[in-house]
Specification:
141 residues, mainly alpha, 5 helices
C-alpha cells in the first residue's frame, strides 16, 4: 500500500519536473531556438521561480525514490542467494516435519557371506585318510 502511494507520488513529481524544465527559457544558442521574452513573467522573475521549483521537485524525486527503495527492501530477507540452501533447510518448522509422511527406508543389499574353513574342508575330497591319532616322531639326536 505504501509502495503504491510512493510510486504514484514519484510519477506525478517526475511529470511535473519534466513540465517545469520544458517551461524554462533556453539560454543556449543551439539551432537558433533561444529567443526573446515570450513567457508569462519577466525573464528574471520566471528564471528564479522555475529554477527554485526545479530544485524542489528534483529533491523530492530523489528523496522519494530512496524512500521507496528502503520500504521495498524491508520485506526482503537478509539472506543471500548463496546461503539460501543452508537456511532453507533450517527454515522448516518441526510442525511441518511431523506432517510429512514417513518414507520407508530402502532395504540394505544382502552381503555375501564367505564360507567358513570347516565348510571348505568338508567339501574337499581327501586323497588319503590319516589315522586320527598318529604317533609323534621324536627328532634324532
Amino acid at each position: 500500500m505504501l509502495q503504491t502511494i510512493l510510486l504514484v507520488a514519484i510519477i506525478l513529481i517526475a511529470v511535473s519536473l519534466t513540465g517545469v524544465v520544458l517551461l524554462q527559457r533556453s539560454e543556449g544558442g543551439a539551432l537558433g531556438m533561444g529567443g526573446g521574452p515570450s513567457g508569462f513573467m519577466t525573464a528574471r522573475g520566471a528564471g528564479n521561480l522555475l529554477t527554485k521549483i526545479t530544485w524542489v521537485l528534483a529533491f523530492l524525486l530523489f528523496g522519494l525514490t530512496i524512500v521507496l527503495t528502503v520500504v521495498g527492501n524491508m520485506d526482503r530477507a537478509s539472506v543471500s542467494m548463496i546461503d539460501a540452501d543452508a537456511v532453507g533447510s533450517l527454515a522448516t518448522t518441526p510442525q511441518t516435519q511431523q506432517q510429512q509422511p514417513a518414507q520407508p527406508q530402502p532395504a540394505a543389499p544382502a552381503q555375501p557371506t564367505a564360507p567358513s574353513l570347516d565348510d571348505l574342508e568338508a567339501s574337499l575330497p581327501s586323497a588319503t585318510t590319516a589315522p586320527a591319532t598318529a604317533p609323534a616322531q621324536q627328532p634324532a639326536q
